[in-house]
Amino acid sequence: MTVREDAIRRPDGSDGIFGVVDKPTAAVVIPLDGDRLHLVEQFRYPVGERRWEFPMGTAPERAEIDPAELAARELAEETGLVAGRMELLGRLDIAPGMSSQREHVFLATELTEGPPSREQQEQDMRAEWCTTAEFERRVRDGGIVDAQTLAAYLLLRLR
C-alpha cells in the first residue's frame, strides 16, 4: 500500500488536504456449504486484536489480477477450499473517505476441502465452519465486527 496527501481546492475555493491510502483491488469470499459459512480468524495489527472474517485479500506486489481469479486464490490459500462454483455478489468500497481500495464479493459453493497454503503473516490464522444462525448471533453479540464481512453477508442475504 501507499499513503499520500493530496493538496486540493474545494468548490468554495479554499485549500485542503486529503490523506489517501492506496491499495490494490481485493476479493472477499463467502464459502457456503448448505447452511454453513466458513470463517477465518487472524490478528489485525491496526486494532491490536484477532478478528473473525470471511477469507479476503489482495494479490502480492500490488498486482491487479482478475477478481474471480483473486477470489479463488484467496479461498484456497487461507482455507484450503476449492470452489466448483464462484458467483459475483457485488462490489464494496472499503473506506471511500480515506482509501481507494475496492473489493469484489464472491459466493463460493460446491466446495472441496484441501490443505491451506497461507502466507507468512497468516501462519496463526484459524478457520472454522459456523451456521448462518451462529454467524448472526456472533454479529449481534459483537464477536464479528469486520466491516467487509458484515457488508458481504448483507450482499449474500439480498441475493
Radius of gyration: 17 Å
Number of strands: 9
Order of helices and strands: EEEEEEHEEEHH
Helix share bin: 10-25%
Structural class, from helix and strand content?
Answer: alpha+beta
Query: In percent terms, what proportion of residues is strand?
Result: 35-45%
Classify the oligomer: single chain
Distance between the termini: 32 Å
State the major sheet. Answer: 7 strands, mixed
Q: Give unreliable regions as ranges.
A: none
Number of helices, where a helix is a run of at least 4 consecutive DSSP H or I residues:
3
The overall pLDDT, averaged over residues, is: 93
Keywords: Hydrolase
Domain Nudix hydrolase: 22-152
Organism: Pseudonocardia oceani
InterPro entries: NUDIX_hydrolase_dom
Describe this structure in words.
- The protein is α+β, with helices and mostly antiparallel strands and 159 residues long.
- 21% of the residues lie in helices and 44% in strands.
- Strands 3, 4, 5, 6, 7, 8 and 9 form a seven-stranded mixed sheet that branches. A two-stranded antiparallel sheet has the order 1-2.
- A hairpin with a 5-residue loop joins strand 1 and strand 2.
